[in-house]
Write a structure and sequence with these properties.
With about 210 residues, this protein is mostly helical. The longest helix is centred in the first third of the chain and has 34 residues. The radius of gyration is 19 Å and the shape is globular.
């Protein structure tokens, strides 16, 4: 008899009793939301800035595409290196470091006054590295921790958490972009990634306390 959707969801959510799986679910929420920031809000910010400088619609779209291209190129080049590192260090530590990098990258870009200036390139590179780190670090830790009999349910809940993250940041980020400014969705992403890094650090500290000699 095939398990029902409710049973699969119950299995996946129940696995979060393992705090390492729980932080992966939280990480999926933030990591998938990050993709919205790059593909949507960073592009909109670039178009808005280029248009304000008098660029045509086509030129504005092209300049905005360059911003995304810089971030995604950094992401693509960083991913193989991160895969090598992932096999050599504790994966919870890796996750904490990856989300910290993402928080720095998004916060750095959010602090920029001119997203089209050459000075934005290092920040965009850091953002791309952080974005790829969050996705990969969450996945490799979850692959290590997910119990084999319910692996599909666990990864299904991870995907669900990612979808919720996309919906939430799309809605909240859109309102903030219009009401306050283009920096705010990136700042929200920085805070979300920073929160995951803090949770991971807390889990690492708790593990060290549990294993410390008494």
């Amino acid at each position: 008899v095939r398990p029902t959707l409710a049973q699969l969801l119950h299995e996946g959510l129940g696995a979060a009793r393992n705090p390492r799986i729980g932080v992966c679910y939280l990480g999926a929420f933030a990591a998938r939301a990050d993709m919205v920031v790059i593909s949507l809000f960073l592009t909109l910010w670039g178009v808005q800035a280029a248009t304000a400088e008098g660029a045509s619609a086509a030129d504005a779209a092209g300049r905005a595409g360059l911003l995304v291209g810089v971030a995604l190129t950094a992401s693509m080049l960083w991913s193989p290196l991160l895969g090598i590192v992932a096999d050599r260090i504790d994966r919870l530590t890796l996750l904490g470091a990856g989300f910290l990098l993402a928080a720095i990258g998004y916060g750095w870009v959010a602090s920029l006054d001119d997203i089209l200036a050459p000075a934005a390139i290092p920040a965009l590179l850091c953002l791309g590295i952080g974005q790829s780190s969050t996705v990969l670090c969450s996945t490799v830790l979850l692959a290590q921790e997910a119990p084999a009999p319910i692996r599909g349910s666990v990864f299904g809940v991870q995907s669900f958490c990612g979808a919720v993250g996309i919906l939430v940041l799309s809605a909240v980020g859109g309102r903030l972009f219009d009401a306050v400014g283009p920096h705010l969705p990136l700042l929200v992403a920085a805070l979300a990634n920073g929160a995951v890094a803090v949770v991971a650090a807390g889990l690492m500290a708790r593990r060290r306390l549990a294993t410390a000699p008494r």
